[in-house]
């Protein structure tokens, strides 16, 4: 019976064929364009970050930290994954990986036939790119047609946009191996306590069989299931020719060297924080949170620093409870040790990093002021400075022992930490130049002389600084200024002339090393500091190789009776330096000392002032100065011949009350009757030398101006008011 005439059937068949062809063509075009219609899976995949690893200066792992998802996942480069692992994982998961376009169509047909004829899911056809797509979008892991279609499209985009070795590396670092263990590196170390390069082929076969059902086949929980899965993988390898025939059974019977599962894995121990944790945080910040950080950390030096700090604190006693310290390599600028807390578990701010806390540094900053004075030619080591009372708007700074020494050499004034000579030096240098000198040493982030006002904060060290910054600044006295880094660097300047200080810095280093450091036999330059109220004790000590900086006190800022830099921080720094050299480090160089011609030269100085002698100086002796920096010529002896030149009296302004103008200020000239230059102060602010034609504005209220003869002598003060 005919339903269609032969002619009509031919037309129908042709039409149906054309329609099917067009439909197939449309599907092919849509399939080819489909990768452009989905997002790149790689960014979503890489949001699951690997663990962060810190390496010490010898390249050993010293700390590991899991990121936000708390998974053990290492970022292992392909060159560290052996070829045997790659061959086995490809044989098990995607034998045609290097040839398909993201979807293995032959495997899809085979799996479909097996599943249809078996009336159940017998096998899958997911390729490595499809598995990566599923990892990036876990919602597509459910075995639905839509989910598999999205996986296939995203897999094709991955293959199109990324090289095969990139995809393989991502896969090997991300496949699940049970629990929180992801990637071949984490799996080999977790189950066998070795890197992938240390795996035997039987161990590799066992691990590569886990990803299909990782939690069901975990060897630490289900060793029998793991062995059964290993047997199937070995048989598969034998069928595919990856291993020789007959080898599968031998490898199955080979013993597996599991690690001791009753203990944590080696990398899990490295997550436990210790007192060096602040070092690692600093390194991560400097490395911009990279996942593999090569640091300058030295475990032995960190431990000896912590041990020394703990000896000088009393957590349960009446002494200082807290301490911090750093060790810095002067040749490279690398921090070798950084301890911000002596007890992380302490309920009293144990988690606070005292090494980066900003605190009053005291006299530990005076060497930078004296260095600038040497650079300016104001002083040499024998220049006589005046240590006598000064008053600033009702405040009279004194010395730690409550006494004044009168005329004293610059080197003694520095080593004794005298305050009024430092204030007078700031007056001569000016607050602007002094602030710039501190800023160039990294000790002022925002050098604003106007905000510093009187300059007392510069002279007395009352401006806040951190131990970390002070240690880096002290490298100036042993060579080229170092910023300080927590990362490993090859920028090393060994050798006698590789990294030497400038002459002014060498002069200060010589002065600071003239007194032995308590507790140390090695020669070192050092300086202490104590904040007001005995709240902070500081010491910075240095040799040509190392700078050690110590802070001792209480993190809450409470005072400690009797605490000084000399009786606590200095012996602690000495103990650290002594231990550094006792443990094998050689003292390979000495600090600059006269008459080293690289840094020093002789001069004829005045026996009275220590300045460069003038023809009027009755007594001259030989002295030293920084090479290439002439010390100013003595003018005191010439003026001393005329006694009238030694008096100082303020002529303007006069005492009394001044009427302000419409702008609420009054303009006044500053003038003193004296035969020498004077240094001016207004309401405690350093003005330096002032031209007679200059005028200064004063607003409503009481005011005090002071004039101090530059060559010494009694100051003159006038009080007045503006209404």
Class by helix and strand content?
alpha+beta
CA-CA gap between termini: 127 Å
Helix content range: 25-40%
CATH topology of the largest domain: Penicillin binding protein transpeptidase fold
- Report the top-level CATH class of the largest domain: Mainly Alpha
Structural domain tally: 6
Question: Which value, in Å, is the CA radius of gyration?
Answer: 38 Å
Number of helices: 24
Any guess at the CATH architecture of the largest domain? Orthogonal Bundle
| Average of the residue pLDDT scores | 87
Total strands: the figure is 25
Relevant CATH superfamily of the largest domain: Biosynthetic peptidoglycan transglycosylase-like
* Beta strand %: 15-25%
Give a brief outline of the structure:
With 723 residues, the protein is an alpha+beta fold. 34% of the residues lie in helices and 17% in strands.
Write the topology of this structure.
Layout: H1 6-33, H2 41-46, E1 52-55, E2 61-65, E3 72-73, H3 83-93, H4 105-118, H5 128-136, H6 145-161, H7 164-172, E4 181-182, H8 184-192, H9 201-208, H10 223-239, H11 247-253, H12 266-269, H13 277-286, E5 292-294, H14 299-311, E6 322-329, E7 334-339, E8 359-360, H15 366-375, E9 384-387, E10 406-409, H16 410-415, H17 419-429, H18 431-440, H19 449-452, H20 456-460, E11 464-465, H21 467-474, H22 503-512, E12 525-530, E13 536-542, E14 546-553, H23 565-582, E15 600-606, E16 620-626, H24 636-640, E17 649-652, E18 656-658, E19 666-669, E20 671-673, E21 678-682, E22 685-688, E23 695-698, E24 701-709, E25 716-722
Parallel strand pairs: 1-5, 3-4, 18-25
Antiparallel strand pairs: 1-2, 6-7, 6-14, 8-11, 9-10, 12-13, 13-14, 15-16, 17-20, 19-23, 21-22, 21-24, 24-25
Helix pairs in contact: 3-9, 5-6, 5-7, 8-9, 9-10, 10-11, 14-23, 15-17, 15-22
